[in-house]
Design a protein that fits this description.
The chain is mainly alpha-helical. It has five helices and two strands; from the N terminus they run H-E-H-H-H-E-H. It has a single domain, classed as Skp domain (Protein Binding, DinI Protein, Chain A), CATH 3.30.910. The longest helix has 54 residues.
């Protein structure tokens, strides 16, 4: 009697859970695609590219300046005394260390800007996803990066991109 009751309860639970999953709608989106192709994301990527180019340009300019200083010092090596040469060499090394710290700070600032941009992007995207899920009776929206395979009709990336572009033109990153 107990076995029959247990079997009946298990079958009933399996039936209920299969009905729940059968009614659930699932979608997925490619967050990187939305970020890189949205108007706001393109502006952020342009800012990141501009800042990266500026850092690289400054680094190249400083490297050229440093090479010139080293060549000049090497040319003077036999003319100036050993103490003077060592002092100038130490000055160059100190300048290199200071500049390395400046470049490291700029790179950290750029990394922080990227992180803040992603957080702000996610904060602005979340309500759009929630509304899209509610309007389309979607139970779960997954990130495409976390999927192994999925039917293409479950991909809501283009729809989300359109909604995001409609609502968000620019992100303010502080």
């Amino acid at each position: 009697m107990f076995r029959k009751t247990l079997l009946l309860v298990m079958l009933l639970l399996i039936n209920i859970s299969s009905n729940v999953f059968a009614e659930s709608k699932i979608a997925f989106i490619d967050l990187n695609y939305v970020f890189n192709n949205s108007s706001a994301g393109k502006l952020i990527n342009k800012n990141i590219d501009d800042k990266t180019k500026k850092i690289n340009s400054e680094f190249q300019d400083y490297s050229k300046k440093l090479d010139t200083q080293k060549e000049k010092l090497l040319a003077q090596k036999n003319v100036i005394n050993k103490e003077e040469y060592q002092k100038k060499l130490n000055d160059i090394e100190n300048n290199v260390n200071e500049y390395n710290q400046i470049i490291q700070k700029k790179n950290n600032d750029l990394r922080m800007y990227k992180e803040k941009a992603r957080v702000e992007f996610t904060n602005k995207l979340r309500p759009i996803l929630e509304k899209f899920a509610k309007d389309n009776s979607i139970s779960i929206i997954l990130k495409k990066e976390n999927l192994l395979i999925g039917r293409s009709n479950l991909d809501a990336t283009k729809n989300i991109l359109d909604l995001f572009n409609k609502d968000i033109k620019k992100l303010k990153i502080e």
